[in-house]
């Protein structure tokens, strides 16, 4: 009985570790965007908030000053996000696709066909997802199915509207 519990604890620890590592994977472009966000928050956003706090203080009594309370709230949100982004950058793993690989991997751009419609996707880390621009996570159901596949391969993914079949036309 104890062996089963130990195996389950070990399995949960491995799953947690994999989830932690996967959430830290970025493309080079994604990491650059994070670094830009951090710089913007540390400079422009901090300055704007400081100006708002200064203007609110000039209005007098801070105990009933809604503008001051709101500015302090924005300051707290900004500083929290700065800490989050710094941690993400510090713990990030940049996925650099193997240029000679024909297999789908994080950083790959692929063209696919579903029914008669052609679509383009880029496989990205979980923190870079932007479905409107074709950026799907390697951890999403669709992304997981694409990973490791090659041009000419076909995958089928369950969707609310039923099963959708995708044919991979190219991998870059």
Give a short summary of the structure.
The chain is an alpha/beta fold. It is about 50% helix and about 20% strand.
Task: Please describe what this structure looks like.
By secondary structure, the protein is of the alpha/beta class. 48% of the residues lie in helices and 22% in strands. A five-stranded mixed beta sheet has the order 5-4-3-7-6. A two-stranded parallel sheet has the order 1-2. The termini are far apart.
Topology:
Layout: H1 2-22, E1 25-26, H2 28-57, H3 66-91, E2 93-94, E3 109-114, E4 117-124, E5 135-137, H4 141-146, E6 154-159, E7 162-171
Parallel strand pairs: 1-2, 4-5
Antiparallel strand pairs: 3-4, 3-7, 6-7
Report the biggest beta sheet as strand number plus sense, adding barrel if it closes. 5 strands, mixed
- Unreliably modeled segments: 1-22
Number of strands: 7
Structural class from helices and strands?
A: alpha/beta
CATH superfamily of the largest domain: Transcription elongation factor, GreA/GreB, N-terminal domain
Count of separate DSSP helical elements: 4
The dominant shape is elongated
Distance between the termini: 50 Å
CATH topology of the largest domain: Helix Hairpins
Instruction: Please give the CATH architecture of the largest domain.
Output: Orthogonal Bundle
Order of helices and strands: HEHHEEEEHEE
Strand order of the largest sheet: 5-4-3-7-6
Can you give the mean pLDDT?
84
Strand content: 15-25%
CATH class of the largest domain: Mainly Alpha
Give Rg in angstroms: 22 Å
């Amino acid at each position: 009985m104890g062996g089963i519990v130990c195996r389950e604890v070990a399995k949960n620890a491995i799953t947690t570790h994999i989830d932690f590592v996967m959430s830290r994977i970025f493309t080079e472009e994604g990491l650059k965007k994070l670094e830009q966000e951090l710089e913007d928050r540390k400079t422009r956003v901090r300055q704007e908030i400081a100006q708002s706090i200064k203007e609110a203080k000039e209005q007098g009594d801070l105990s009933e000053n809604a503008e001051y309370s709101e500015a302090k709230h924005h300051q707290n949100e900004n500083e929290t996000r700065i800490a989050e982004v710094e941690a993400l950058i510090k713990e990030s793993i940049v996925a650099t696709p193997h240029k000679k690989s024909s297999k789908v991997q994080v950083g790959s751009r692929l063209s696919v066909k579903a029914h008669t419609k052609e679509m383009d996707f880029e496989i990205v880390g979980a923190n870079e997802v932007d479905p409107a621009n074709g950026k799907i996570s390697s951890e999403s159901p669709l992304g997981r199915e694409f990973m490791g596949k090659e041009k000419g391969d076909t995958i089928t993914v369950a969707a609310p509207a039923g099963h959708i079949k995708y044919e991979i036309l190219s991998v870059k």
